[in-house]
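Q: Structure for this?
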Amino acid sequence: QPRILTVANQKGGVGKTTTTVNVAAAMAQGGLTVLVVDLDPQGNASTALGIDHHADVPSIYDVLVDGTPLLDVVQPCTTVENLFCAPATIDLAGAEIELVSLVARESRLQKAIAEAEATGHAYDYILIDCPPSLGLLTVNAMVAASEVFIPIQCEYYALEGLSQLLKNIELIRAHLNPPLHVSTILLTMYDGRTRLSAQVADEVREHFPQQVLRTTVPRSVRVSEAPSFGETVMTYDPTSSGALAYLEAASEIADRGAGI
Amino acid sequence: QPRILTVANQKGGVGKTTTTVNVAAAMAQGGLTVLVVDLDPQGNASTALGIDHHADVPSIYDVLVDGTPLLDVVQPCTTVENLFCAPATIDLAGAEIELVSLVARESRLQKAIAEAEATGHAYDYILIDCPPSLGLLTVNAMVAASEVFIPIQCEYYALEGLSQLLKNIELIRAHLNPPLHVSTILLTMYDGRTRLSAQVADEVREHFPQQVLRTTVPRSVRVSEAPSFGETVMTYDPTSSGALAYLEAASEIADRGAGI
Ligand SMILES: Nc1ncnc2c1ncn2[C@@H]1O[C@H](COP(=O)(O)OP(=O)(O)OP(=O)(O)O)[C@@H](O)[C@H]1O
Ligand SMILES: Nc1ncnc2c1ncn2[C@@H]1O[C@H](COP(=O)(O)OP(=O)(O)OP(=O)(O)O)[C@@H](O)[C@H]1O
Ligand SMILES: [Mg+2]
Ligand SMILES: [Mg+2]
């Protein structure tokens, strides 16, 4: 049984993709077998993992809308062993509206993962990168996973959307997926020179003492340069402050276990 | 006839809200009458303009889904004269799915603005802040406006989503709103210390020489502190580098005219 974490936050630009690919890479470097599911039509996670995702590539769209087996679209990451990706293509942009009228529209990803597992294929971790919204793609991710992993940027607006996100998680837990819970919160783009970062971090640690990781990811340009080379920062600049923070975050997550 | 600009980019966290509220505030300080329409369920623009937007407040949701007149939900901004806002509340999160089955679902905002104008009420500018997606809320904004204003963060991922955004704008222009065009592009969160910012800025200036504003908005913590006080940076710290850049951007937009 893989541990499945949905990396979600409807606030845009908080570090969902960056967290997904770097935590996944760090875990894979540590010997775990990890699958990243890219549910964002922008396909940023696919880019960071060096996976081509132009329109003809078999993708998660085919899995959700046409019922293509998940393992048929999974590709290995080019820069890290044990790391795989189910890429997103531009078709996914239309999926939210297409899913509205399909049967079992909320659980199509869950079924696809269960079918892949039934074939005997075993991942240790599955990380699902969500788009910045709470639509049917994110709902599918929340139904497929039992853990929610929330990256929070150390900025004021990041706090505003949190209560909306938690309400939605509670709705999904109550009606669609009882084991769902927020297991992990990671503070991202922390800038030690500003009071704002410290204030947001303090506030989050106060409200979510159990879920917040000890590790905070500092703002570091090496992190944002890596995807332009089709790499995660874990291989682009392994000793940078960003890479070291993601290494620590990954081991904290693995050490904690699923923490129901 | 007001000039209507849709501030859109499906990439999250690129500065859509920050650009909307600060350009709007700068124009209002210059004597223009400006309306900000907050189409993002997170309600970040409403927050920055000091407008309460808890669930009972009349909002743009009522306008889009129930047909409430736009002027019934508009409130004055508390910190800047001549500046008004049609706030977003949490109900808006469900609007995308609710709009799918409504008549004339793509043009409900356009009709609401036209009806407000017909009453003789005159704004000089209307700026519409979009959520980070290309769903029915952003489509409504693109149908209501004739200009698209694209903030682009000086980061690698920001370039990736651009072609998808331009394709969607072209689809809307061809099928729903012939005058629609990209009139303005603003480079945001420019960090002069990094090569990455300069590379992204050069690339955007090369591809969109006509639309990119001369002004670039630097990364500045005063900009991100302002919303926690319910203010735009224009009043929070008027001589900060961010405020001065938004002042220049606003006058460049006003000077250029609609540039069909
Ligand atoms: N620690 C960091 N230091 C510097 N830049 C970072 C860091 N983490 C992320 N970034 C950059 O910030 C931007 C936003 O991050 P990212 O795209 O991962 O967020 P997201 O939540 O996935 O965005 P979206 O809502 O669009 O999916 C990206 O350009 C990324 O490279
Ligand atoms: N010039 C700037 N300098 C520093 N911080 C900035 C600047 N512009 C925006 N920010 C901060 O960056 C974050 C993202 O900006 P903003 O929320 O305006 O983007 P957005 O595109 O509206 O996001 P979303 O996609 O969630 O709607 C915010 O926390 C904001 O305060
Ligand atoms: Mg992302
Ligand atoms: Mg916004």
